[in-house]
Amino acid sequence: MTTKPLDAAVLPQRAVPAGKPAQDTRVTIRGTAKTTRRPTVPRSVRRAAGPVGLVLLWFLTSATGVLPESVLASPVDVVRQAVDLTRNGELPSAIAASGRRAGIGFLIGATLALALALLAGLFRLGEDVIDSSMGMFRAIPWVGLIPLFIVWFGIEETPKIALVALGVTYPLYFNIYGGIRSTDAQLVEAARMMGLGRLGLIRYVILPSALPGALVGLRYALSTAWLALVFAEQINADAGLGYLMSNAQQYFRTDIIVLCLAVYALLGLACDFAVRILSRRLLTWRANFEGDA
Amino acid sequence: MPNSVEIRGLSRAFDGKTVLHDLDLDIREGEFVALLGHSGCGKSTLLRILAGLDDEIGGEVTVPARRSAAFQSPRLLPWLKVWRNVVLGLPGRPDRALALQALDEVGIADRATVWPKTLSGGQAQRVSLARALVREPELLLLDEPFGALDALTRGRVQQLVAELWRLHGCAILLVTHDVEEALLLADRVLVMDEGRIAHDLTVGLPRPRDLTAPEFVTLRARLLGWLGVTPTHSEADAKTLERTPS
């Protein structure tokens, strides 16, 4: 090794703070190539370990009586309830009713968000009129609008759907609008030079470049949709998961409450998963950072 | 030869600062013209005006309707496969055969179905050239298309442009910093200064040109002189204007 004397001879000596030993100025870069790595637990197993462990802890504390049933039912009871309620059709019909509300609300909210984002993103007049208003409305906590919605829409389905639609509109609007406005001006210029008209520009340049943002917005919007539904179904529901839950509450049935919460969570997870699959398929053109191993 | 481009009394100002100053210029059909000048002399502004991307101008500019451009960065749409980028904006349905033909011409037909992000800098620039040429332009505008390429790749792409020009016979306006590049490729080299064409040099050398030929060296020295660079220092200093103090 000739580095050491060379270092000393050629490089100017750096001042070393008093009291600190002179450090070796070289670093070793250790290889992490697959061949030299010891076998590791697969990622899917690592990811599952946390949730499975928590459920196991829940089961053990319930079985040993540390966690009384009046506080939280055992996972075994919850699963039993799931089977019973599925057999007698209560759970499927509740999920269908809730899903319908979430679906219709989401469609209305998404359409509204897309239309507003396009108007605000593509036209300066639209931006001036819409964007400031959206900023103002966003400051209102949408859950706080429930009393007003009951006054306006009664206690039937309409206020529930409206609340979901409202919850969906904001995250989608802001992400699509932001995406449209972050379009690379150089690409727009090149595409115009190649003869694209206004519609062509929107279709081939502006919308695709807004897509990554829109998909982030979609993930937010779907989780907000289920959240809004939980709130909305507290309003005099006669069907749906919220109805099942408020009934259970009256009889202190923590097993049914936990079951309904689990179903909400699973529906949310399923939506998130669907968007992630969609993102992967739609954004194959993008170079992504996949995270450190 | 009739004129392809006619510019009369062109001026352009940004926020009161004049960039182009009562500029006159003719480019004949099929002529290869290189435009040299320091950064900020207005050469890119002139190119954008000819491209039709900037019309807040004074004076009169006549250009062919069929014209296209390639820029310093390839500006490919990352969400369209390479061949779709080539035929982007052409009327009718995307014509794959036409795209492949254009890509073949720039020697990169095998990359037709990949995403642009997987291309190297030189490959992306070739695609950008194919996209410009597939439109069969009468005027091709090149805004430092070799600027971001490494020296080896640059030489090859320059050669390619020379061949494509011979093949298509379109007029070319090439904006560049590189005096040698201008002399290697162009029929005429213009030097821009303070918003005007300050010098107009006809390069009468036979092609392909030899960098070491005495005539070539003489012309280069004259151009460098006009640009305010004294070629008495080392070759490396004189070669790129970017590094010289203005």
TrEMBL record, chain A:
Annotated keywords: Cell membrane, Membrane, Transmembrane, Transmembrane helix, Transport
Positions of transmembrane segments: 48-67, 102-123, 135-155, 161-180, 201-222, 256-278
Any GO CC annotation of this UniProt entry: plasma membrane
Coiled coil (residue ranges): none
Membrane topology: Multi-pass membrane protein
GO biological process, one term: alkanesulfonate transmembrane transport
Family matches, as SUPFAM superfamilies: MetI-like
Keyword Cell membrane part of the UniProt annotation: yes
Pfam families tied to this protein: BPD_transp_1
Location of the ABC transmembrane type-1 domain: 91-279
Location relative to the cell: Cell membrane
Family statement drawn from the similarity comment of this UniProt entry: Belongs to the binding-protein-dependent transport system permease family.
Name this polypeptide is given: ABC transporter permease
Gene: ssuC_4
Automatic annotation (TrEMBL), chain B:
E.C. code: 3.6.3.-
Residues in ABC transporter domain copies: 5-219
Top-rank lineage group of the source organism: Bacteria
Keywords of this entry: ATP-binding, Cell membrane, Hydrolase, Membrane, Nucleotide-binding, Translocase, Transport
InterPro entries in UniProt: AAA+_ATPase (IPR003593), ABC_transporter-like_ATP-bd (IPR003439), ABC_transporter-like_CS (IPR017871), ABC_transporter_ATP-bind (IPR050166), P-loop_NTPase (IPR027417)
EC top class, as a word: hydrolase
UniProt keyword annotation of Nuclease present: no
Pfam families, per database record: ABC_tran (PF00005)
GO MF entry, a single one: ATP binding
Protein name: Aliphatic sulfonates import ATP-binding protein SsuB 2
